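Q: What would this complex look like in 3D?
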Amino acid sequence: MHADRDKGAGTGGGAAGSTLLSQASEDAVAPYTEGDPILQVRGLAKHYPLTQGILFKRQIGAVRAVDGVDFDLYAGETLGIVGESGCGKSTVAKMLVHLERPTAGAIRYKGEDISKLSGRALKAVRRNIQMVFQDPYTSLNPRMTVGDIIGEPYEIHPEVAPKGSRRQKVQDLLDVVGLNPEYINRYPHQFSGGQRQRIGIARGLALNPEIIVADEPVSALDVSVQAQVVNLLDRLQAEFNLSFVFIAHDLSIVRHISDRVGVMYLGRIVEIGSDAEIYDHPTHPYTQALLSAVPVPDPTAREHRERIILHGDVPSPANIPSGCRFRTRCWKAQERCELEVPLLAVPAEFRHVDTPARHDSACHFAEEKRVVPPEGELEIPGPAEAPGDGETSEAEGDERS
Amino acid sequence: MLLEVRDLYVEFHTREGVAKAVNGVNYSVAEGETLAVLGESGSGKSVTAQAVMGILDMPPGKIAGGEILFKGQDLLKAKPDERRKIRGQEMAMIFQDALSSLNPVLTVGQQLGEMFVVHRGMSRKDAKAKAIELMDRVRIPAAKERVNQYPHQFSGGMRQRIMIAMAMALEPSLIIADEPTTALDVTVQAQVMDLLAELQRELNMGLILITHDLGVVADVADKIAVMYAGRIVETAPVHEIYKAPAHPYTKGLLQSIPRLDQKGRELYAIQGLPPNLTRIPPGCAFNPRCPMAQDVCRSDVPPLYEVDEQRRSACHFWKETLDAR
Ligand SMILES: Nc1ncnc2c1ncn2[C@@H]1O[C@H](COP(=O)(O)OP(=O)(O)OP(=O)(O)O)[C@@H](O)[C@H]1O
Ligand SMILES: Nc1ncnc2c1ncn2[C@@H]1O[C@H](COP(=O)(O)OP(=O)(O)OP(=O)(O)O)[C@@H](O)[C@H]1O
Ligand code: SF4
Ligand code: SF4
Ligand SMILES: [Mg+2]
Ligand SMILES: [Mg+2]
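A: Here is my prediction, written as structure tokens for the whole assembly.
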């Protein structure tokens, strides 16, 4: 799909992160050619000021919610972003769709930095990058009909669907996400969680975007309903050649859906690579600990699986440790980790060998360690015979509530 | 048997009608054993647990039938003060949301110490020492200093550990943990589950772990009870159920989870939605979503068939389900 991986995220690499304030140097617009990443994120940061005092607010520090994030997104691929609560995933998502303004860094869409655009130019690009939110219960306005919710983006971008054609467009979208088009006049409370998430997805698709940023789109759903929505996202991606940034804390779902995966810790990506590189050949201690902590649905695994139990808590983003930000919890930390920021790049020891361990990892002492049992070793009932695609769900949807 | 729930029925009288939240639940836990209660949102896991603890909202809730035997005694027939005593000392519950179950205006030490003052008649000073000991035991760093802090000064994982400390303070024989790690990150979840398992072993407690995470179940449970629409549809020792489920719903759940060890093809998705509890379908409640449903499923409620000595399945076609794998 993307010819040259080496061109990928690592090149822009940690360099951008460590020189936060030096404006991303490569602002010049390189012509976009097919095969280039559709989105290039470099040195992206969001710092929220911490203030003290009521009358005279003075800044006493900053919450470095996002602190130098680099990645590429290619057309038609899914980049998964995982990490624990508070590591900055949602803040990255919000910057990508212009709900937050970056403190520093660049977001290049087809070569052009869109993070500093405004007015008409911004409006034109925004259309192409849409967001699907986590919570199907609160992200939909309860007083609007489903038709109005899904059609709302057309108020801002009437050029996509002239007034007369909107109803039809919305009904088509309902159909695409597997909801009955006749439900157009219903209200959100008349739908189940999974159906509401479909409404959110339909809305995200309304403007025919190229990129969808999905922030925990299935986290609030039950297992059986979650599978329906994940399948829908898979299908839509193939059908419309969408690029996805898929954010979640559930590592199994991210593996299922992603071509490449980035692991975040305290505002930075610490490791990024293909799904197999990250899950089967992780080299960063944090990724290894994270993966080893995921309970796998196989009781026979509990005896022979190694668990890396991390001690202590994640430091506050207002007070990030010097050097490697993971060092306060890392069992391998040494003096160098305190003094020197590890850059997100292919570690030297793997640079010239042909191995799946050769991918970007921000660790001075990166080494491969397998923590997920190899495929086939888990004893789980075989693959499904009859995949239900959830098309029937709306038929019974009336049942609930 | 430490706890045995027999044919329990709970209803809620609401404006929309009677919601049959629990419809004949049967499960049991022995000392030192971990029972995982698994099921989707609204399947009646928490309501059953609340009935066991005696903390059900009544009204609107109503226990419409059944027995809850704790060490042989039917709790539903026990006098209120007896019940309260058992609840205080012999059973304890850990909730999903630690922040809202801790009192924000009391220090963590006061809340932990309270247990010993009320139930053991200790002095404040001794109780505080006990609190520090407990905090040490659940691995809160610098317990001596932190005993005087308030809940909001603790992280989510630490608050959950405080809840665990509180639950085990009086060394109960049964702990019910209702989604104790759902709100936590995986690395913190691992810490908390580790701790819970260790304490359980040490005190030889019975543990009922309520969860919807099939991974967590596989990790810690001895046996499982799968709930659907207020019923137990399958119970079995943990190894057996993962190898070969005997109920189509369990099987569907196991197949619908994405896997950590491979990139996905299309996921199996159980069609449709769980039923509205005021209008549970006749026959088998799962029949509108079941790929194996036959006419008999739409007319006859399946009893909890005995698959073998340790397994039960509420499916007319449990044999076919077992064979079909
Ligand atoms: N408006 C704000 N002002 C100050 N701090 C903020 C603000 N928004 C977010 N933060 C902080 O920034 C950090 C990152 O938050 P973010 O919501 O991006 O995390 P996340 O990775 O999405 O977490 P979760 O998995 O819990 O959704 C957190 O520490 C959060 O408290
Ligand atoms: N106080 C109440 N009043 C009315 N209905 C209630 C009450 N408490 C619970 N119910 C209903 O009983 C049913 C079972 O609820 P319960 O909380 O046991 O589900 P659960 O299996 O614990 O789900 P979850 O995984 O979402 O916690 C639900 O349909 C719920 O709406
Ligand atoms: S750089 Fe050091 S502290 Fe950071 S992850 Fe690597 S070994 Fe651990
Ligand atoms: S009784 Fe019938 S409908 Fe119910 S689970 Fe078994 S086969 Fe399916
Ligand atoms: Mg978030
Ligand atoms: Mg519950």
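A: To summarize the key features: Chain B touches chain A through 63 residues (CB under 8 Å). Chain B has a mean pLDDT of 88.
Q: Very helpful, thank you.
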